Amino acid sequence: MNLKSFALIAGVLALTACGDKTPNPEMLKGESFIASNNGTDITLSFDANELRVNGQVVNLYNGYYEAEGASIKFSPFASTMMMGPVESMQVEQEYFQFMTTVESYDLKDGQLTLKNAEGKEMVFQQVEAAAETAEVVETETVEAKVVSEPVAAEPAAAK
Length: 159
Known about the structure:
alpha+beta, Lipocalin, 9-stranded antiparallel beta sheet, 2 helices, globular
């Protein structure tokens, strides 16, 4: 190999190595992550087709996000309203508040780091999405009636 060819190949490799390190928002789609804060697990999943997220702390939650390059914004989340341990409820409230302030992200080596303008950050580990159940579950349709008088239940037959 002559010197010019070697120099050309080395130059191309050097430029490739110095390529754009900006995260690609497409890499978030369909991915799931988990973080732990004071013993409380926080899950975050990105929808594969829409700009939606969902997850669970104590309550199930969902919302929208917008991402361009390394910038990301989350909408306020809608959530269920179940009670849980006081510490976990506090973690959940802090998480929901933090997520509305997130401005940037980085995704590399299976870690998603979310950051806000004050420098606060949260690091999630990528996890495998739950496998879809291939098994079909059969259900029985039961008709419900509204009655004006109480109905006495019949005792179950002995086997």
